[in-house]
What does this fold into?
Amino acid sequence: MKPVTVARRDDVQAGRPRLVTVEDTRLVITRVGDTVYACADACAHKGGPLSEGKQSGTRLACPWHGWMYDVRTGQCTFPGRGAAVAAYPVRIEAGGIVPELP
Ligand code: FES
It folds into this structure.
């Protein structure tokens, strides 16, 4: 997929997940300190919107039933151990966030 800038890093605040769409792919963008992460937005449980969830550090809770994810890896940490959402590498180019989608 052609790389695109989805947001400015300065416009994404820690603890405030943000939904972006790249072509038909919905991503949740999160920031922890100066590091930005990108994961698929649809929860592995029943597709809840992770971008509307509560973020605490590297942990992001799905707003529908509370499954917890590690935004660094996309791995579910509770209670759906072994489940995961796709996590994508992120480049910062001239202050812009560029997720690297396959
Ligand atoms: S849909 Fe996310 S916890 Fe159920």
In short: The mean pLDDT is 96.
